[in-house]
Amino acid sequence: ATGAVVVLGSANADLVVRAPRLAGPGETLSATSATTGAGGKGLNQAVAAARAGARVAFAGAVGEDPHGQLLRGVLQRDGVDTALLRTDGARATGLAVVTVTDDGENSILVVPGANALDDLTDDDRRAVAAASHLVLQLERPRELVRRALRVAREHGTTTVLTPAPVSDGLDELVALTDLLVLNAGEAEELSGEPGVERAAEALSRSATTVVVTLGADGALVATGGAVVRRVPARPAAAVDTTGAGDTFAGVLVALLAEGARLERALAAATTAASLSVERPGAAASMPTRAEITAALPDLPDPTRLQEAT
Ligand code: ATP
Q: What pLDDT score does 102 carry?
């Protein structure tokens, strides 16, 4: 069905500290700068899909604190519906403390905070049932993800899972997934198969369609146990690949939700992701629909596409 996208996932305040090197145990080191921005795979994918033109609701949780207000504001500025964004009075907004060194090394500490909220509300259920696509990652409690996938399945809502971070025991979730989107390392880890083709083929015996992203090599698609398509990347001068995967997933779903065929959605997703790596930041670097269309001139605007299908 054509229509709305619900992203159920994580939202974090990203505290990015730039330093000459990573601090060692017991060491106090003078850092160069610190900035606070919006992050979390759920928030990133919601923003990517909204910028690409989708009608998106974000089902997440933040704390009753300034970081929560910051994230709410970021989502609203990009036109993401925040009616399902809950405020957890007992926990702080999720926080990722990222140290980036001058030579590009990084280390990350994540405090899940309000992302640990694990109940699916009646409003969430109604929104999932009415949506065309439900998008999930694994930065919220496993049981919450499982329940949401089941509600989607019951109502014919297409399920999209980006299974990161990968862990053991995800078979049931993958079996409830229509479209699995993951990078090469995640595919190998999740399937236990060496080699990205074999991994994608194995996963596509469980999820309906598997899209594996391959960085500068684009992406491949597997269905029914076989690799069926390869999509080249759009060449890009990469300066910061943070959020490339989330841009890809968000834009892919945005196009599918407006009725585009998979091939067209993949072209838009690789184009959008390549544009995002040419600029610094995660959500900050995600392109708008106009920018995607400028780089991919034969991509119809949403209104014309609705008429054509
Ligand atoms: P990240 O963790 O950095 O967000 P990822 O590991 O989840 O990324 P990748 O496979 O590295 O995902 O990248 C996702 C998509 O971004 C690729 O399928 C490709 O379309 C695009 N992309 C990434 N790196 C490049 C690059 N150097 N040049 C062009 N496109 C790129």
A: 86
Rounded to an integer, what distance in angstroms lies between the CA atom of residue 160 and that of residue 164? 12
| Cβ–ligand 1 contact at 214 (below 6 Å) | yes
For 209, other C-beta atoms within 10 Å of its C-beta total 19
> Which active-site residues does the annotation give?
246
Site to substitute for ligand 1 among 43, 44, 183, 188, most atoms within 8 A of C-beta? 183
Q: Cβ(39)–Cβ(12) under 8 Å? A: yes
Mean residue pLDDT across the chain: 94
Instruction: Name the DSSP letter for residue 306.
Output: H
The closest residue, in CA terms, to atom 9 on ligand 1 is 215
232: DSSP letter: P
CA of 156 to the centre of ligand 1 (A): 30
Domains of the chain: 5-9+40-91+115-161+233-308 (3.40.1190.20)
Rounded to two decimals, the ipTM of the complex is 0.98
Whether residue 141 has pLDDT greater than 60: yes
